[in-house]
Each structure stands twice: as C-alpha cells, then as structure tokens.
Amino acid sequence: MKALVYEEYTTDDDFSRILKIREIAEPKPKSNEVVLQVKAAALNYDDIWGMRGKPLQVPLPHISGTDAAGEVVAIGDDVKNIKIGDRVVSHGNLTCRTCKACNEGREYDCPQRLVWGFQTGPLWGGYCEFTHLPEVNTVKIPPSISYEEAAAASMTMMTSWHILVGRAKIRPGQTVLVMGGSSGMGVFGIQIAKLFGCDVITTASSQKLERCVEIGADFAVDHRKEDWHKEVYKISKNLAKEKGKPPGIDVIYEHIGGTHWKKELTLLKYGGTLVTTGATTGYDVMTDLRHIFFKGANILGATQGTRAELEQGLYWMSQNKIKAIIDSEYTFENAVEAHMKMLKGKGMFGKIIMKPD
Amino acid sequence: MKALVYEEYTTDDDFSRILKIREIAEPKPKSNEVVLQVKAAALNYDDIWGMRGKPLQVPLPHISGTDAAGEVVAIGDDVKNIKIGDRVVSHGNLTCRTCKACNEGREYDCPQRLVWGFQTGPLWGGYCEFTHLPEVNTVKIPPSISYEEAAAASMTMMTSWHILVGRAKIRPGQTVLVMGGSSGMGVFGIQIAKLFGCDVITTASSQKLERCVEIGADFAVDHRKEDWHKEVYKISKNLAKEKGKPPGIDVIYEHIGGTHWKKELTLLKYGGTLVTTGATTGYDVMTDLRHIFFKGANILGATQGTRAELEQGLYWMSQNKIKAIIDSEYTFENAVEAHMKMLKGKGMFGKIIMKPD
Amino acid sequence: MKALVYEEYTTDDDFSRILKIREIAEPKPKSNEVVLQVKAAALNYDDIWGMRGKPLQVPLPHISGTDAAGEVVAIGDDVKNIKIGDRVVSHGNLTCRTCKACNEGREYDCPQRLVWGFQTGPLWGGYCEFTHLPEVNTVKIPPSISYEEAAAASMTMMTSWHILVGRAKIRPGQTVLVMGGSSGMGVFGIQIAKLFGCDVITTASSQKLERCVEIGADFAVDHRKEDWHKEVYKISKNLAKEKGKPPGIDVIYEHIGGTHWKKELTLLKYGGTLVTTGATTGYDVMTDLRHIFFKGANILGATQGTRAELEQGLYWMSQNKIKAIIDSEYTFENAVEAHMKMLKGKGMFGKIIMKPD
Amino acid sequence: MKALVYEEYTTDDDFSRILKIREIAEPKPKSNEVVLQVKAAALNYDDIWGMRGKPLQVPLPHISGTDAAGEVVAIGDDVKNIKIGDRVVSHGNLTCRTCKACNEGREYDCPQRLVWGFQTGPLWGGYCEFTHLPEVNTVKIPPSISYEEAAAASMTMMTSWHILVGRAKIRPGQTVLVMGGSSGMGVFGIQIAKLFGCDVITTASSQKLERCVEIGADFAVDHRKEDWHKEVYKISKNLAKEKGKPPGIDVIYEHIGGTHWKKELTLLKYGGTLVTTGATTGYDVMTDLRHIFFKGANILGATQGTRAELEQGLYWMSQNKIKAIIDSEYTFENAVEAHMKMLKGKGMFGKIIMKPD
User: Fold this and answer.
1) Which of A88, B184, C35, D93 could potentially form a cystine with C74 if both were Cys, beta carbons 3.0 to 4.6 Å apart?
2) What are the residues whose beta carbons fall under 8 Å from the beta carbon of B236, sequence distance 6 or more?
3) What does the pLDDT read at residue A242?
4) How far apart are CA B204 and CA B210, in angstroms?
5) How does pLDDT run across D16-65, given as a tens digit for each residue?
6) Cα A139 to Cα A87: distance, rounded to the nearest angstrom
7) Please, are residues D74 and D135 in contact by the beta-carbon 8 Å criterion?
8) Pick from A214, A252, A216: which is nearest to A233 by CA?
C-alpha cells in the first residue's frame, strides 16, 4: 500500500527533501485492533515538529497523521463493538487504559500517553492507505458526517470540548474569550461555547475576524493590536451593562502564550478560569501572581481529551450544532504543499485535509 | 487442574448434591490476559445465588469465585504492566472499557458490566487452581499483604470505598452510620470511615457489637431492637453536644433494606446522604418522600466500584490503616460447609476464604 | 393599608368564611430591610395549607403570599444595594445567612429556613399593599420583565432552576423528563431544560399536552394513562435510535409522587438522576431498591433554592429564553375565587396572579 | 477606651513615630452587630502594609487588627445566635452576603470584600479594648480553646483550610508540599494536610526545620538551598518506592512566589494542583507554560476563606487535632516591638499575640 514516509529529520523546513510516497506492507489487526482504509486524514502542527525532529525525535521511518477517518476492513478477535464496514475516526490519544488516571476517567493524565501519528512508530500514523488502531481508539462516525469532516474534527474538536466542557465547565450565560478563533482549535472553541449558551468573544488577525463571526462568535477582536485586551474588556463591559452581569471574562480558552498571556490574566473575573493548551507564540511567560491569587482565579492546563469527549462532540456535529471547518484538501502527491500552507498559516481558516488520492 | 464446578442449579440449598471437584483444562491467556495460580479466593453471597439459579441463571457448567488472589504464571502478548511472578488479585468487575461510562471513569455504570465468577462462564471463575483475567482486571498486591487478605478484601473493600469515598464523598468530622457493620462489607465501611476522620456508628446483632468496636467503630447498636434508630439518634445527639455539631447522620452506608429503610431515612441531617448497595432483608421498601425532599437528602445507588478505588483501598491496607477481616479458611474439599456457613451467617465475622488445598 | 387576612383556619375549604380584606398598619423597615409597594403577587399551594391549618398551623392572624413584586418605597439604614424606586421581587426563602449551610451556598439546607408568607407572621406575607423583607430576600427585576411576570416566576422558577441546574446538573444532549409539565413548576422545568440543550419529554393531562409543546417540550405524554411510562420509554428509544444515544431518561423532575413514583424509577438510565420536590398525589411510595442500587441511580431531594439561582433565572427571562406563564389575574376582592381555581386546578396553566386592586 | 491608633503613614518602617495608644469612644452595636471586649488579637503582615500606606492607603486615623478574640458585651436587636457573655473570634472577611458569589458559598469572591482591620476604618480594627462586628463575622470559640489560640488561628487557619480543603480538595494518601512551613500560614498548612491523611513535605530556613517536623511534617527541606526542589523530588521518589505510588507532588501550598515558583512547577504530578495565596519574595514570576498544559496541572488562586471553613478549623482545634502556634505575646505598650519582630521574622515561629494590657 501507499504511505507518506520520511526516514530522516529536516531542520530547514525543506520537507520536499524528506517526505516521500513509499510502498509498504498492509497492516494486520492485533486481537484488540481494527484496520481501516483511510478515506481522509487531517494535518496537525505536530506533523511539522515530527519532520523537524524537535522538540522530540519521533521514531523513524515515520508516518505522520493523528486524525484519520475511514472504513473498517478487518478486526481482531477481541474487538467487541466495531465490525467490518463501520465508518470510524481515530481517537489519537493512545493510553494504557489500566492506570489510576485512565480508570478515573482522566486518560489525558495517563503517564504512558502517546499521540498517535506523532510519538508512535516506526511507520504508524494516518497518512497511508490502511492503518490500524486499538478498538478503543476508534469512534463510529454518525451517518450525517463525512469522512473529511470527521478527520477535520477529531483531535481539535475533542481538545476544545475537553478544555471548555471538561476543564472549564462552561455554563449558559458566561462570557467566554476564545483566543485564536480562526485556528483549527479555535473554530471548535467558538462553536462549543455557543452551544452551551455563552457570550463568545474571540480574537484573530484582522482579515479573519469576519469569518469568526460567521461561525458564531458574538464579537471578534484583532489580537495583533497592542490594546486588543482593552477592546475585549470594553466589550465585556457593554455586555455587562446590557445584560445585567459583571464585566470581565469568566473563561479564557488560551493556546497562544507569549506576550498575550499577561494581558489575558487582567481580563478574568473573580473566580474566573483560564485553560491553557499550547503556546504558539512562546512558552516562557511573565505572570503577576496577584492576578491569580487576589481574584481566586483558576489556571488549568489541558492536553487532548477523552474518548467520551470526542463522542459528545461528534454527537453535536450529527445534530448540526457544530461544524468542522475545512480549509482545503490535498493528496499524498502534494503533501509538501499542504504542510507548507499550514506552516505559513496565511489565509488558512480551519483544517487541511489529506487523502491518499 | 482441579476446579470447583456445578452443572445444574439447586433450589433447596442442598449444595452437596451439585458442587463437585472436577479436573478441567488449564487456561491459556488471550493477548490481553494474565493467568494466575490461585492461592486464595473469598466467598461472596452471589455464589449462593449462582447455585440457586436465581435471581438469574448463571452459565453452566459453572465455576464461582469473584475474589481470587494468586501468582502470575503466564501473560498474553499485549500485557503491559504485569509480568510472570507478580502477585495479583482479581478486580471482579468486567467491563467494556470502551463505552462512555467506562471512559468517564464510571466503569460501574457500564451497560456491559459482568461480575466475574458470577455472571461469567461456562467454567470461568476463581475456585480453581489456575484462572485467567484481562490484565486490567488484576491489581498487584503490595508486599505486606497476604494472598488471603487480598482475596478477602477485593470486592467488598472496593465496594465500600466506592460507596463512602466515590459516592458519599465522606469528609473528616462527619457522622457516618454503617448498617450491618459485622458483614464482609461493613467491616471495611467502618475502617474506611475512620480512616477519613469520621465519627462512626454501626449496627449489628448483639453478640457482634463488641467486635465492631474492636475494629474501629465508635459506637455499635443492636439493629434487631425495635428502637435501634432512636438509640442511633441519641448517640448522634450526644456527639452533637460534646463536639459542637448538629445532631443526626451525615452519611448512611446501607445494604440491608427491608424494614430498616424507613427508620434510616429519619436519621439523616439536612443535605445528608444515604448510599444503598443491596437489600439483604428485602427489596421493596416504603418511603415517606418528605424525608427526602424536605431535607434535601441524597439517596444514591451503588454497585461495585472502579479499579482505581480497589488500588486505593489496597494502598491503605499496605499502610496498615485498613485490615481484611478473615472469618475462617476452607479448601475445595469442604466447600459445601463453607457456603453453608455463609448462608446461615451465625457467628460469622468478616470473609470466608477458599483455597485449592 | 389593605391586606388579605384570616384569623382562624377552615378545614372544609370554605375560604369565603375566613378570608377578609382588613385595614392594618403600614410596615416600617428594620435596618436591613426594604419596604415595597406590592404591584403583583402570585398564588402558591401553601396558601391553601395555611388556611386549612394543616400540615402545620401558621401564625394567626395570617397574611399569605410568598411571591410578591413591587416598587421599593423605604429602606433601612444598613441596606447596601437597593434604593427607593427600585423594582424588586421577593426571594421567599428566609434563612439565617449565618450557619454552615448558608455560608456554604446551601441556604436551602438552613435549619432555620422559613417560607415567607407561609411560615411567617402574624401578618407577614405578600397579599397586602405594602410589605417588608430583608434586603437579601429581594432581587432587582430586570427592566424588560413586568411585576406580574416576576411574581409569577419567583418561587417556582427558582425551585425549577435549583432542581435541574443546582441539583441534577443537566447538560446539553441529556434526555429530561418533566413530570406535571403544565403546573407552575413544570412550565419552568420544561423551559430550563430546553435552555440547557436537553431533549425534553413532559407529562400532563390530555387537554394540556399541546400547550406543553408550545412552551418548548419536545414530547408530551398523558400521565393519566396506565401505561404512560411505556410511552415515555418508547419516545426515549426513538430518540436513542435517531440521535445515537442510549435509551432511557437521564434526569427526572419529579413533584407528583404517589403511584407514578415506581414507574418513574424504571425509566432511569444507569447513573441517572431523579430529583423530588413534592408529592401532590401522595407522600408514601413503594420503591424497589434494585432500581436504585443496580443502576447506580441518584435520588435527590430539593426544596426551594438560592438567591443566586433566582437571579440566574431572572437573567434568562430578561434574555427572553424563559417566560413566566400567567394563567389569570385576580384582586383582593375575588381572592376566594382565585384560591378555589388553584385548588381545583381545572383548566389552569401557569400561575395565578393576585393584585391589591 | 484604649486603642492602638496611627494618623499618618510611615514609609521608613519607623513605627514608633506613628503608633500611639489613644483614648477613644466605646462602640455601640448596629442592629446586626455584636460588641466584644478584646482579650487577645493577633498580628498579620497587613498591619505593616497599613502603616506604610502601601500597596494601598488604609483609612486614617487607623486601628489595625484583623484577628480579635473576646467576650461579647453587647448585641444589636437583630442578632440571632450570639448572646452577651459568649466567647467569640473575628471572621475578618467582611463581605456583602447578598451578591451571587456570597450566595453561592464563595464569599472570598465577593467584589465588595474588605479585610477587617486593614481596609476598614477610620478607627475600625481589633487593637482596642472593645470592638464591633456583624454577627456573621464572629464565630463562637469552643470551650477548650483559649482567646489567644483563637486569635492566633482565625485568619491563617481559615486561609490554610480554604487552600487545602476548599480549593485543592486534598485526599488521604496524597503527597502535599507546604512552602514556608514555619510561617503563620504554614504551621496550619502542615497540620491540616496531616489531619487529612497526607504525606507532608515542608520547606523552611535551616534553623526552623526541626520545629516543622515537631508539629507534624514528615519531611522538612531548607528552601534557601539552590537545589531545594531536587531534594523535595528525591523525597517524593523515596515515598513513591516505599508506598507504591508515583513520584512527584499532588498538591503544593504556595505563598512565597519569586524564584521558587518555577522550581515548584517542575515538581507537580500529572493532574497535580498548586494553590497560590501570596508572594512574599516577589509577585512577578516566569512560568514555562509546558509545565502547566502538558501535565494538565491546576494553578489556583486563593484569598482568605469562608466562615464555614473557619468553623471547621475551630472544630478540629477543639478536638486537639490542630494547634495554634503562638510565637510570643505583647501588649499595646510594646506594640512597636511586636511589629518589628514580625517585620524581621528572625527566629519567629507561629503567630504574635497582642493584648490590651
């Protein structure tokens, strides 16, 4: 079968030098696994980290791809709830399912956690014609959702659900700030917060603000402006006056870090919550602790989510309340181009889809 | 290998007629399973239900035994954390590990839940020389705990932990009433409530009251007296006066049902909690709903618990803060006698252990 | 000022014999109180219990009225957030604000809790031209809500919010069964469950089913039919098939008791929740405990709610997502007629309003 | 009556210049207040901030004193549960008791929150012969606790209880790190974590380590050493090996800030919690966000606590499970000396008590 493979890292982002289509053997399922014929996969930023070999050296030869959707073509002897012909999407959070965290419903805290298609291998990820996964790492796709949509949703929707519902426990009437609302994560953050009856303010670069509003944000602010946070606060004050609730933000969905961090903290209400799940503009941030302790704030970390959270998100996609946003589609032949688009981010809105052909 | 087998039910409790030692094939592990040489198992009341074929018809030929402890002698290819030679005890709650409830840390709510050694078979339970279980259904035994103690603890300690810690969320300083404190469940209930810094009142028949106090109860009341509940309330009132807290019970650990139910409800404080996990004296109870809604009470059901809860209980056994109470030990040869003792309950205190020889 | 007063009880429901309009002195505010000119009050069933002197003997002479809305005309020296001219509605749950329950945000569990206009007096309730309340027992009415709507909402909306949000913690996608959906309580139960994104099944008598659907219920079932619960289960099964979720009910809003209780319990999913807050058809119910413990169910009692919950409900009324349903309006002159209508219940839908003139 | 008063600020810490004993009028209770004859008060660091006029300018003329214990000598008309002759201690967190946060049991999030004896005045604090407080801001002292102990406990014990129990929700068996274990806060942190069955590691300067162990810490580490955090981690690893639990810290009680912050974050387990409540060595800290999001950590802010939390702490003092640690006692005459001792901190262990004479 065809697979998108690299056998060495490249630190200069010249992906065309390493990323090749290879012919490899088709997988057979272990007793607890299913094999699916991949119909659509979705790009994630960890594809780039993998090819760079930084911040961690992924197993070589490597197949990337954490989000894959397809049709089941084989199952192992102990598979219970999936059968051949089922349409499934990957739940890319591989965990032991045995430790205390897993057994308490916190698989994201499993010390043996691995991101499939990133930390796994050699040759184990979604960018190939057929791939295999433990049954528990696949979820059935409701009939009204396409393979492309399922792949575009899996990791980012689950993570957004985990952040807002699992961690921040958003409730109707809260004011939620979604940083980076045009990103793969942000588009789900906006929609989930609206589903829960929140007032949603988001940030993006100026040319993407309008689309953020189209997918549901009540307000969108240009986060490249120096005083973006003052604009956000002013909106929250108007909301406060109009709706009779206090100004400030109840919940911040944060994955940007860098220089935005410190300003975000000033926006939180007493008892407010910020969930951080990444730091695309820098890990090392300055914090004035008084913003945390004086206000009784909650700063919560999050990585990925649970299978149950993925299922809940898919349920609401099937009810047409959440939509996957697809930026564009590529095939293995033009994989380099796809990854370059994600790397540059220019004009991108939503997820990039990759198909075998 | 030797196994304790029955091939038909008996409604007259003449267990000697059906319960036989048979020679059967030794099990081999599936890929996710371990095989253990059983060193000690413990009796549970569902052994009796199984032999009666009521309230459900267990698979035949049948091997009972939900609590088994032993040494691992073989493991399947996909076993990750257990190795040959490990000392393990069964976690008898077989669940799918895939559904929403399982993935949210509520394996006790799994619709596919099966009690191992009761609902499983044919020929799959703990009363044999070698048995097999999924890795996730075994837990390592800390070095200071014997096989007998581990078997005596598994199901009842986990259930008690789930009831008091998982469901009732007991906190230091609360007044806890453990019904039936001399039972296999009750002895753990008393000790767990003391571990958490609660004042513990328990009930038992008159000749077992003293032993309940020996294992930690602060007060023990004869629940065969008509006015047992008035005595409990009086104790709570004295506690209230002495310690400056309100009279009444914060948490009731209930597994008796029948005529005791209605009196128990009168004892709860405003906002108090009763957890029910069985009904040895009758399922159908009369309830005056005013005791529930006027007081804002919480009546919570519970069955079994999670692997993580079993591990927490074993941890505290290893720290000598919880002890398994062993009533007596039997071998396969006198299994009928063992089960008759449990059935009659006379003079029994703690768990009955069963060993191959 | 005019007030609606009775000086003795009547066990024959001949309210015309005892209920009189009297001239009494206008109240002055204590230091922590406000005085309001009553513009609209709402009837509650405890008005009837009061006149009957059963199940408790209310203070005499008595003024009923637990829900009153009006304009503030005087304030005490220590009042902080309310000023003369403010439009306010009563929060009829008088509590000590000092005990552990009150300080933990559970004022409904306060042992000194009194229902204003029912347990209070002599001569302290809402059916008069001017009444007084502690500041903390009044809440400002958002501008878009009328006095009539505020009075019609206060106690029943708060209680419904407490039951579904505070106690059952409803979440989007759950299937909620609201018993008695045409009652003062039920109409809010339906709307709150819809606000939270739930699928709502309700029950009512046949002629009121349509109106229940008009205010938001997805399905309405005649609860006078012997097999009403089978119909509910069938709906849940269809929902399950259509939406890909398990059949059964996640949350039951129960205030009927009697013969419905036992059937309701059969409808709960594993881990499901029933909240009980009254028992209009009988307090003493039979329960098969297996439905509670085997399914890990939660049976929660509730009475009234918190000031914060009332404010949240009013917020959503101001956002037009919840509407008070007013059955009819009366004045002191025809108070007997109003109470007879409530007593008989025939054709009633929503709350009955009482005005001074 | 005598009171300790200052009428201007002093930025040079020359307290003797401003702090004087004055004769002022005795207070009378408002309707909801009690007046107490102060028997003992306790120093807090905000006394110093007050005299400096930084970071906020307290009302002048000023009486400091947030923790005061005494005998009730007068009560207002609406006082319900306190009577003349009662022994009470201040709950120094003055809040509105009316807002959403207060009504939800989160008085520490009240936007109108004021620290009594710091933000209040003119002339309203604990360092005088008689002072007045709302009833709800006093708590009865159990008989076995002295006035000195009650004053030494009030604010710091409540805050520690709030941090560990209310916010971090510590559970038996967790590994808890209490930073600054010899401080007024830390001594309670150690004891509360032990009461809850945790393994406790604390930090202090070298000469105070032994006393930290005397009051209950299992391990004490010199936090002035560059590699203090490596020593803490090593202890957690030994604990892990000995007790069969994972290495690392479950809960960090943090009130130091500065350069310790970054090292503390490296110690947290997956899903671990750090509660911050102050920053005696500096507010502005560098954070590597990966320690938060990759581990799913919880960084929670806290200030003060609730009246209910103070009562719970006093309960455990009355049961002899928590002890107030008194460093020394002073009278108004040598108040300057007392404050200088606190400012320098040298050799101090526990709280400094101030008495009228």
Assistant:
1) C35
2) B175, B201, B247, B248, B249, B267
3) 87
4) 9
5) 999 999 999 999 999 999 999 999 999 999 999 999 998 889 999 999 99
6) 8
7) no
8) A252
Chain D residues whose C-beta is within 8 A of a chain A C-beta are: 101, 106, 108-111, 246, 257, 261, 270-271, 276-279, 283-303
Taking phi over 0 as left and psi of -120 to 50 as alpha, with beta for the rest, A100 belongs to alpha
Q: How far apart are CA A128 and CA B183, in angstroms?
A: 58
**By the 8 A CB rule, do C152 and C141 touch?**
no
Block residue for tokens 């990103």: A183
What is the distance in angstroms between the CA of the first residue and the CA of the last residue of chain C?
12
Nearest CB among C109, C257, C286 relative to B271 is that of C109
Tokens 């501008």: give the residue. C143
Closest Cα in chain A to C144: A243
CA distance A119 to A56: 8
User: Does D312 sit within 8 Å of B173, measured CB to CB?
Assistant: yes
Quote the DSSP letter at residue A98: S
- CB A43, CB A338: distance < 8 Å: yes
Facing residue for D96 by CB, picked from C30, C80, C106: C80
Spatial distance between the Cα atoms of A93 and D23, rounded to a whole number of angstroms: 70
pLDDT of residue B242: 87
Chain A residue with minimal CA distance to D284?
A288
Whether A259 shows a pLDDT value over 90: the answer reads: no
Q: What pLDDT sits at residue D151?
A: 98
> Chain D: residue nearest A290 by CA?
D283
Q: Which of D81, D144, D171, D191 should be substituted to probe chain B, the one whose Cβ sees the most B Cβ atoms within 10 Å?
A: D171
- Cα→Cα distances B188→B212, B314, C88, Å: 11, 12, 53
For chain A, give the longest Cα–Cα distance.
64
What is the C-alpha separation between C233 and D46, in angstroms, rounded? Answer: 62
Where is B20: in which H helix or E strand?
strand B20-23
Partner chains of C (3+ C-beta pairs under 8 Å): A, B, D
How many angstroms separate the CA atoms of A238 and A228, rounded? 16
Q: What is the pLDDT of residues A326-351, one digit of tens each?
A: 999 999 999 999 999 999 988 899 99
C196: distance to nearest CA of chain A, Å?
7
pLDDT tops 90 at residue D258: no
Q: Among all chains, which residue has been given the structure tokens 């409808």?
A: C267
- End-to-end Cα distance, chain D: 12
For chain D, list the contacting chains (3+ Cβ pairs, <8 Å).
A, B, C
The predicted complex's ipTM stands at 0.94
The Cα angle at residue B66 between residues B63 and B72, in degrees rounded to 5:
90
SS3 D224: coil
Tell me phi and psi for residue B323, to 5 degrees.
Answer: -120, 140
Q: What are phi and psi of B120, to 5 degrees?
A: -95, 165
CB D50 within 8 A of CB D105: no
Dist CA B274 CA B297 (whole Å): 8
| Pairwise CB contact (< 8 Å): D301 & A279 | no
β-pairing, A298-301 vs D298-301, is: antiparallel
| Residue type, position C234, single letter | K
Q: Cβ C107–D104 below 8 Å, yes or no? A: no
